[in-house]
Design goal:
The first copy, chain A, has helices at residues 16-27, 51-56, 67-74, 78-81, 111-118, 133-136, 155-167, 184-189, 194-201; strands at 8-12, 31-36, 47-50, 60-63, 85-88, 93-95, 101-104, 123-127, 148-152, 175-179, 207-211. In chain A, the strands form 2 sheets. Chain A has an 8-stranded mixed sheet, with helices on both faces. Chain A has a two-stranded antiparallel sheet with strand order 6-7. The radius of gyration of chain A is 16 Å and the shape is globular. Chain A has 9 helices and 11 strands. By secondary structure, the first copy, chain A, is an alpha/beta fold. Chain A binds chain B through residues 103-104, 107-108, 142-147, 151, 176-179, 183, 185-187, 189-190, 192-197, 199-201, 204-212, and chain B through 103-104, 107-108, 142-147, 151, 176-179, 183, 185-187, 189-190, 192-197, 199-201, 204-212. Strand 11 (207-211) of chain A pairs antiparallel with strand 11 of chain B, so a sheet runs across the interface.
């Protein structure tokens, strides 16, 4: 399945999303470092280090921090992130009292665009933000093909992300390049589907997808 | 395919969406009246009459008017719509200069909820608002199964809509009841995907769908 040579990848965020991606990317043969605030305080399946070291030693940075905290976490790391590809899987939502997305934190724009604006020397690519975390590294387990929507301004960065997605099990036909980073407005808005989908389906793997 | 007895249905809106639905519902054996502002000025595939007559003579009203005009069109018809089911397929978007959805007209709520609030004696059901119009009456033509998301507060109204969807070719497994009308916030937000999907895919039949 591996179509690329090994890439150095930092995964920021050690919640379910980050842990799943770090494990899956390492299993695909990449050199993964989990960037966490306090390395050593918890057991991880992959190497963990502080965030600065993880970024410094990696070419591809995966943002799996909560989307409503991402800007404040990453804007100060502009120099460290320069020249790197930032694969952003997060959604910036306002949580309801039940802990589920109740609205969009940036309804007139997208977190993807705000990140690209704040990090002009970094190549931001948005993808994998329209599914339950477990699908990100196991898309073939669904009964119908899912879609990985991809948004980003840099063609080379999107090509790299596409090969990484393929390493995670994404068939090339399931990867849909929507265009520039502004198209993340559409995929981020789909986060508003999550509460009702979980209510209707239960906590099962799902991916918002385009049937054609 | 017809699982219900014939229903009297008014379709409001004679654009591509309304025309497609009116023709498809008539072909499924229902008594369809297209409600238009100026009956007789254009050729239609089904009976056309003025909007008031179409509503008066029908049990199920399909709203296929442009979503950014729907509230002003329907709020004044509150008495005529009382006791009826309103199947709303519209999306209320702010159009960009290219004529495609550039934002949501009601970003903090949904048109479905605003209609239900304005028409308390009408049973509002939102569905079919997440696909190209041609898929609404030909869902089986896609290569993978699409989803018809359904939102509404009234269980009986949603049951009626489900049977009408089945008459249009929707497999029962493809119809997903999301819950109350407030869940239309999620499906309406997916309208923001339309410009980039048309850009990426071209003008081909598509439906935003949940893979699981």
């Amino acid at each position: 399945m591996t179509t690329t040579s090994s890439i150095t990848i930092a995964v920021l965020g050690s919640g379910r999303v980050g842990s799943t991606l770090a494990t899956g990317l390492a299993a695909a043969g990449h050199e993964v470092t989990l960037g966490v605030r306090n390395p050593g305080t918890a057991q991880h399946d992959v190497l963990a280090s502080d965030v600065a070291t993880a970024i410094e030693t990696s070419d591809l940075i995966v943002n799996a921090t909560p989307g409503d905290t991402t800007l404040e976490r990453l804007v100060g790391r502009r120099d460290a992130l320069a020249g790197k590809v930032l694969l952003d899987v997060s959604n910036a939502t306002v949580l309801s009292t039940d802990g589920l997305p109740g609205g969009l934190l940036y309804p007139d724009v997208s977190l993807g665009e705000l990140l690209q604006d704040a990090l002009p020397d970094t190549k931001v690519v948005k993808t994998l933000n329209t599914m339950l975390f477990s699908v990100m590294t196991a898309p073939g387990n669904l009964t119908t093909p899912p879609t990985a929507f991809v948004s980003g301004d840099d063609v080379d960065a999107k090509r790299l992300v596409r090969t990484v997605l393929q390493d995670l099990g994404w068939d090339d036909d399931w990867i849909l390049d929507l265009g520039g980073i502004s198209t993340a407005r559409g995929t981020e808005a789909m986060a508003l589907m999550v509460p009702s989908l979980l209510g209707a389906l239960g906590f099962v793997p799902f991916a918002l997808t385009v049937a054609r």
